[in-house]
Each structure stands twice: as structure tokens, then as C-alpha cells.
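hi! just following up on the protien thing from before. the input was this:
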Amino acid sequence: MSKQKLELTWVGKDKRPKLEPRILLEDPEKSYHAKQRVSENDFFDNQLIFGDNLLALKALEQEFSGKVKCVFIDPPYNTGSAFTHYDDGLEHSIWLGLMRDRLEIIKRLLSDDGSLWITIDDNECHYLKVLCDEVFGRNNFVSNLIWEKADSPRNSARQFSTDHDHILIFSKNPDWIPKKLQRTEQANSIYSNPDNDPRGPWLPGDPYANKPYSKGQYTVTGPTGRDFSPPPGRYWRISEEKLQELNTDGRIWWGPNGSARPSIKRYLSEVGDLVPRTLWSKEDVGSNRTSKNEMRLLFPGDSSFDTPKPERLIERVLNIATSPGDLVLDSFAGSGTTGAVAHKMGRRWIMVELGEHCHTHIIPRLKKVIDGEDPGGITKAVDWQGGGGFRYYRLAPSLIVEDRWGNPVINPEYNAAQLAEALCKLEGFAYAPSETRWWQQGHSSERDFLYITTKNLSAAQLQALSDEVGTEQSLLVCCSAFHGISAAAAAARWPNLTLKKIPKMVLARCEWGHDDYSLNVANLPLAESSPPAPAAKAAKSGRKSSDSRTTDMFGDGGDA
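and the predicted 3d structure came back as:
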């Protein structure tokens, strides 16, 4: 019987956007850095990107594929409260498609030892799990963590008061191993030293095991002459010789009177750090109330974010998934918690956000972190003193636009350098203008280069260019036109040159002029059977409904 591959299906699954790999334009006035170095581990190349997060992920793909150690995202939960009066199932299908498109690029961005962490609630968790299985492979599913987000019941709940969210973890490769957590006082408190052992506190270990052991059936006599054998169906964990050896070394506990069954001592000084567990309590990593208090401390009187994530939650994720200096990505930046925590922990970071709170909340928050003026969150725990910086980027406009007659042309907003960088990205070249060779604007190898011009090139100009390139190198020439010779003749005459016309060379590659891949409920068709309700009217007018996460589901991003 052949095995069938089970897949998640939804309306529109086969539709995939032809994304334009935009370039990023820095706005130095919004970039920010400390006035001086605080430590040798300060990072100034962090990136805050303003724009649609799917286009931003595509923009990052060429430079950062295989370089991101940890992706933490807090996507819109698609709770459905703003969709009551819209066609049934439409929002679910769109949500799955938008998540799939983003997950596929995220997988390419992750390093071989990288991991993805996604916070989600019950509404879409299990669909998202199957979707991630398809994108990453079921073998790369690591765990489903349960985070206790609430610290009190909601008696207004119709059925159950929800106390938790899920955190789905997927790795790039199945052999990924999470880092262990530092031991806590609570974990150490179960160790004691009733016999004043000079090796310090210890914990008694069960000497018996359920699995058969070839040397596990014997009788041992304790200090008081009492004999001990394993209970029926159980076996000694170690051989008789090993038990006697441990007893001689004082590593066997026979009880305060020497008449108890033997226990093997496990010394606190000899145990390692803690393997992460799948249940994360509010006491350990904070709750929604914790994060709201953190936001109030940063922005007094501001309640823009209903469900931000506490800094201790992100701290634990980064302790498990990264080391200092590693690159962390959050493409649903929300209030900027991921970047703030990564910065304090000495990680490099990239965040993407489309909402205006990128300017009203994230930038002011990061400035406080950099200036050492953020007293909340994990600041004291990691002894954060400030330092470092970030660069602010926005997505460039579409490279191809229509002129007044509807013809596709190069966007006149692009200058020569931006055009060269954009075409390098489209052609898979690294943008690296040479200071000595005017025709070297990018390279794909040590011998393969790219030259871009909006001029029409003549045969004489192409001959001079070919002579300068030489026979040991090759050059891709992108120009508006070349005249006086056919393409076939040019290829035969100048084998070291490859000629392409712009913009014709790229017209069929992308969805040009598509700036928004978010889901705005105002754009969804109304169901004919029922009139708009207040929640729908709020969505159409741009106001937040009862669930603020659903108004612009993939535009405003999460609340991390």
C-alpha cells in the first residue's frame, strides 16, 4: 500500500505572487546610533525596515539567505472577530496563503543551524502547524510550546477563558539542538545535604529501571544488614560492582538510619544547565499584563498595543536559539520588542514594520534602548548600559511604472546608482561599484561582472567595452538599446559580452507596482445575506474593531 502525502488545501493555494526584489533606501535622519561605543560588542548595522513585510523579506533574500540564526514572528492571529459579516472561509484561505508566502522566504533566510519561532493562538495554530510541515518538512518540527499569557480568568468568556498561546518551533535542519537554560534558584532548591557531604547538595536518584539490564539482577546488603533487591519487573540501573564502587566513594545514600533502600546521589555541582521545557509559566517569562506594564513604562498613557510580548519571553527564546553576535529577524515587528531585547542581549537584528507605529513607537523605543534610558524589561537582568545603533530603511518604489501612454518604463524616481543596484538584485549580482573600472557595477564571481546604462550603445562602443573587459572576464551589459548590429551577431563578435535591453529584460519577471501584500478586511467582499455590523463598519472606516490585530492583518504586523 503506497503512502499518500497529506497536504493542507485552501482556496487560492496555487496562486503565488511574483514578488519584485526591491532595493532598500536608507533615511539617515531616522537612523540612530549611540554617541560613543559602550563596549567592543556594540552593533551599529542593525536594520529597521519600513514597508510591506513580504516585499521586505524578498528584498533581504539575496544578501541574507542562510545567515539568519533565529526568526521570531508574532503574526496576526486571524481570530475572525472582524470577519463576522464577510464570506465564510475567505479570510482563512487568504491568511494561509499570506503566511505560506512569507514562510517560504523565511526558510531560505535561515542558516543551517537556524530556527523559526511563531506565536499563535488556538484559532489557526493547528492549520499553521500543518502549513509549516509542508514548508519546512515534518522532520524539522521541533516543539509546540505553551506560554501562560494570562494571569487571571476572563469571566466574560463565552466558553473557556483562554490562559495560553502557542509557540511553534521549526528548525532549518532536523539535527538542530536548542541551547540549555541557565539553572535557576528554584531548580537548585530541590537539592539538599542531609549527611553533610563535602561535595555539597545532592538529589537522590532512583536506583531501579524498568528496562532489563544484563547485570541488574542481584541482592545487595545495606549498612544495617538489610538486603535489597529490585521490585518485581524492575532491575538495578547499574552493576553490583559499580554500586559497591559508588558506595565506597560515599555516593550512595542509605537513609538517615542506614536502613533505607539505596539511592544514587546526583550532586548539584555536577549537573549541567537545564533542558528547555515546553510549558512556559507567567512567573518565568511574564504574561500579557507584564508586557502591557512594560509598554506603559515606555509610553505612559498609550494603549496602542493590546497583546505585546514581554521582554523575558523573547529573552528566553534568544537564549535557547542564539549566541551573542547572531542575527535575529522579526518581520512582524509590532511594538519592537524583538529588536529591543536582541539589542540588549548583544545580538544583531532586523525588524520589518509597515504601520505608522514604526515611527511613533519602535524608533522612540529603540532610541531609549541605545541611550541606556530604558529601565524596564530585561535591562537590569542583562546589565544593559546602552550603546550600538540601527539603520532605518524604506522599500524603494517599484522599478517599472507606466508612462502616460501606458508603456512600461524605468521609474524616473530611480537615479543611476539605484537603477544599477536594482538590476544587480534582479540578475543575481552583488552590487559593488568599482572605483577604478567604470563598467564594473556588480559581480557574480571574480570574473563575471555587470554594467548598466540607459544609453543606446553603438557597435563601436561595444567593441571598446569588449576590448577593455578582455578575454579572461565576462560582462553582462544592460542598456536601453544597441544599434548597428543584431543580437546574434553581437554574441558571435563579442563572446565576452552578454547584451540585454532594459526594461524589456525584466518585464515578465515580477508584479510591478504592487506595493501592498497585506490583508485589509476593508477590501474583502461583504456577504449579501447580512448588512454591515459595527465591527465591519469600523474596519471599513479604518478604525480598530474589538480585535485590533485583524484590521490590517499583514500590514501592521504583530505586537512583539
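The CA atoms of residues 149 and 287 lie 4 Å apart.
Residues 82-89, 530-551 have pLDDT under 50 and may be disordered.
cheers
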